[in-house]
C-alpha cells in the first residue's frame, strides 16, 4: 500500500465526485423553508458564519488559558506500585520527563543482534528479548541503574544506539469512565453486514454482556509479569464500551454497526488505581504484534500518551503493512499538546462531538484531527450488564473505524479515506480545521 499520509487531500466537493462509494451512508437532507430553498440557504449560511466567528472567539480564549489543560495523570502520586492479580508488586509506575509516566527505570530498544549485544555493560540489566515479526522489531527491554536513567546519560554511554531507544512509557485510555446508568437507547445504524475483520487494542471486553450475544470477539491478554510472577489485573469497562460501539447489538432498539464483523482485541491495560488504568509500551507492542497477524484491515486505538521512538517505528511498520490506523486524539483539553499515536503521520485522528455538533469540551485540537464523530454522553455497554453514559474521544474513534472497515472491503486505504472526506459534514472553520478535521461522520 502506498503511504496515504503522503496524499495531498483534494477538496471534499471534488472527492465526492471522484470516490467510488462502497456502502450507502446517509449525508443528510436539504430543508426548504416557506420562503424557498435559496432564501433558506442564505439564512443558514449567515447563521453558520456567525456561529463560526463566535466559536473561534471562544476557542481563542480557551486556548490562551493554561488552566484548560486536564491531565488525569497529575492525580497520581510520583511513585505508584502496580500489583499483580495475586497482590504482589509487579513494578512501579513513576512520573518522568514532561509529566508523563513510565515503568520505573525500564527502557526499550530495537536493533540487530550485534547492536543489542552492546547493551551488555555495567548499569544495564536485560529483562526480556523478543522478535516481534508482525511489527518488524527485534525488541529488548532493559533496566538501568539510577545514574543511567535519562536519555542524556544513555547517549553518553551508547551514542550510536540512543536514537532507537526510549522509556517503557505508560499509555492511558481516552474516555471519562462510566457516569451513570443510561436508559436511552442507542440510535446508530448498521453500516454493513459483511464479514469484515477489525482490530482494537484496549482493556478486556466483557463478552458475556447481552450486547455481544451475536458478536464474534477474539481476544488475547498481554499482561504477563517478569519472572513468571503471574499477570496484571485486567479492567473491562473501557474495552467493553468501545467494542459495543462497533459490534454491540441491542435487540429491538439498535442493531450493531458491524453485525458480520470479527473483532480482534488485544487486552493490554492494567489497573492503576480505582479510577485509572494504564498500558505499558512493552505490553502494547506485544498486543500490536499479535493484531498485525490477524489479517485485519483497520485497527482502533483508543489510547494516548507521549511521543516515543520505539512506538513511532511500530506505527510506521504497521502502516507499511497496509493496516489502517484510527486513533482517539485525546481528552486533555484544547490547549494541550498533541498526543500519540494519533499525532503520528498517517494515523487517522478522531475527535468527539455531542448531539448538537458541539466539540467535546476536553478534546485535544491540532493538525492531527482528521474526523469528528459522536462521543459525548454516548450509551455504551457496561461490564456488569446494561448501559451507561460515557464521553471521550475514545468513543468517537470506533465510529470511524467501523465506517472504514466497510469501505476497505472494496477500496484501497486512500480511496476509502477520500470517500469519507467526501461524506463528512463540515463543522467549524470552512474546510479542514484544527477542531473538527474534515468534519462530522454521523453514522
Give descriptors for this structure.
443 residues, alpha/beta, Rossmann fold, nine-stranded antiparallel sheet, seven-stranded parallel sheet, 9 helices, 18 strands, globular
The CATH architecture name of the largest domain reads 3-Layer(aba) Sandwich
Helix content: 10-25%
CATH domain class name of the largest domain: Alpha Beta
Poorly predicted parts: 1-68
Our count of helices gives: 9
Can you offer a commentary on this structure?
The chain is of the alpha/beta class. It has three domains: 37-64; 72-170, no CATH class; 173-423, Rossmann fold (3-Layer(aba) Sandwich), CATH 3.40.50. It contains nine helices and 18 strands. Strands 1, 2, 3, 4, 5, 6, 10, 11 and 13 form a nine-stranded antiparallel sheet that branches.
Summed up:
Helix content is 23%, strand content 23%. It has helices at 12-18, 37-64, 113-117, 151-157, 237-247, 281-291, 309-320, 397-407, 413-423; strands at residues 79-83, 89-95, 101-110, 124-132, 137-144, 165-173, 197-202, 216-221, 262-267, 270-271, 277-280, 298-301, 303-304, 324-328, 348-353, 369-374, 378-381, 387-390. The two termini are 27 Å apart.
